[in-house]
Specification:
The chain has eight helices and no strands. The protein is mainly alpha-helical and 185 residues long. It has one domain.
């Protein structure tokens, strides 16, 4: 089965269910750490980055989460500066579907392509967070909370037993389905 048409269709879904109320987040390390946990769209996407990286193994275990975090930092800085970025919320929702699909299929892309994809989605998530929080400790907390979610996804993907790998891939598919449900809500 070719996943490309499915992934392309995911980018065209309506943007109706999101975690962001549009108000500035209180500052502080703890507030920033908790912010990535503020909505299912963020939690699922960030877990899927770790899950996909863990399924691929090798350098992907560090490269994909690192790419996401780098993109997220850049997007947050854009948000702090008040720079507009069109399609952020739709892109965040698409990230859940695409990353869940990639994890569900354990799809091996060339590492630079996977990193660029992770960084692009990180940019969108970071921009959404950056428009809602104050710079400083909240920014560092946000990156730490995101890294924790990536680590949780990596930890879920560690079991080497065949049944465990199937269960992890099923979780990726469930996340993609969850993204579709969020799109239709």
């Amino acid at each position: 089965m070719n996943p490309i048409p499915f992934l392309a269709a995911a980018l065209l879904l309506p943007a109706t269910a999101f975690a962001h109320p549009g108000t500035a987040l209180d500052h502080g390390l703890a507030a920033g750490f908790l912010h990535p946990l503020s909505g299912a769209d963020h939690v699922l996407a960030m877990l899927m980055v770790g899950l996909w990286a863990g399924l691929l193994g090798g350098r992907a275990r560090w490269a994909l989460p690192g790419g996401f975090l780098a993109g997220m930092a850049g997007g947050a800085l854009m948000g702090f500066a008040g720079m507009a970025l069109p399609g952020v919320e739709a892109g965040i929702l698409a990230s859940v579907i695409v990353l869940g699909t990639l994890a569900g299929l354990a799809l091996r892309l060339p590492l630079p392509v996977g990193m660029a994809l992770a960084a692009g989605f990180g940019l969108l998530h970071g921009h959404a967070h950056g428009t809602e929080m104050l710079a400083g400790q909240a920014f560092l907390g946000m990156l730490a909370g995101t890294a924790m979610l990536h680590g949780a996804g990596l930890a879920l993907a560690i079991p080497a037993a065949a049944w465990a790998r199937r269960a992890v891939r099923l979780a990726g598919g469930a996340a993609a389905l969850g993204g579709l449900v969020l799109a239709l809500v």
